[in-house]
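In the design runs reported in the main text, the only information available to the sequence generator was the tokenized backbone. The following block is the verbatim input for one such run; it is reproduced so that readers can re-run the procedure and compare outputs position by position.
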């Protein structure tokens, strides 16, 4: 069963700063009255000058701040990466359902920008949780600094080939990787992505087929048990950001 989301609120936040982490940008916002929520939940960030907000899972929650890892792959994410200290931004969240934390032997697995929710997740699990990360290049692998001690695979090596048995796998990453995890470790928890324009079920942009029924990923997920997502098929083309 998915985690129960915390009440969400929309607010204006001020940018506390940003720094490059490999090819990514860690965008830090003043927390204000925003609740960091459950690891794996997401926030809608409204990029300046863009019509639609973008969904991002929380990466870090230091005192007084919320930090999001942004991959600048288009105009919206590039606008977010260009924000400077003191700029204002509209934020809605936390939204959706996150990871269940009541697992006995957690192992965190991520590919690429899927690393985003893992630092906060590791913190909530106790800090010493083992982590496996996969990246397509050494430049992208610089993001592993967010998770000290993580084991890193760089393409063509696959991170899924490093996963041992006997663990409760909590994963986030590209769709092909998650399908492999779902098949090999059917008790795992997986954070998926789909196009999202609102984040709370109004636009139906993230409708996916789960167990034979069309459902909104922003409400059902983005974190889902592997037993459900092994049958998941996207009803729309992939896009958006869930991590």
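Verbatim output:
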């Amino acid at each position: 069963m998915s985690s129960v989301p915390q009440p969400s609120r929309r607010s204006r936040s001020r940018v506390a700063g940003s720094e490059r982490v490999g090819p990514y940008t860690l965008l830090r916002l003043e927390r204000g009255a925003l609740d960091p929520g459950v690891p794996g939940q997401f926030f809608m960030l409204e990029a300046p000058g863009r019509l639609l907000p973008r969904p991002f899972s929380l990466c870090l929650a230091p005192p007084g701040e919320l930090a999001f890892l942004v991959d600048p792959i288009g105009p919206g994410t590039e606008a977010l990466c260009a924000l400077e200290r003191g700029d204002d931004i509209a934020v809605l969240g936390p939204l959706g359902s996150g990871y269940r934390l009541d697992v006995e032997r957690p192992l965190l697995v991520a590919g690429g920008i899927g690393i985003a929710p893992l630092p906060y997740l590791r913190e909530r699990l106790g800090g010493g949780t083992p982590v496996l990360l996969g990246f397509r290049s050494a430049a992208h692998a610089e993001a592993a600094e967010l998770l000290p001690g993580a084991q890193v695979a760089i393409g063509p090596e696959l991170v899924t080939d490093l996963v041992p048995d006997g663990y409760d796998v909590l994963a986030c990453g590209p769709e092909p990787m998650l399908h492999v995890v779902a098949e090999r470790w059917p008790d795992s928890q997986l954070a998926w992505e789909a196009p999202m324009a609102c984040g709370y079920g109004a636009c139906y942009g993230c409708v996916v087929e789960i167990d034979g029924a069309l459902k909104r990923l922003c409400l059902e997920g983005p974190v889902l048990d592997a037993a459900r997502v092994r049958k998941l098929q996207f009803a729309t083309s992939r896009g958006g950001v869930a991590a």
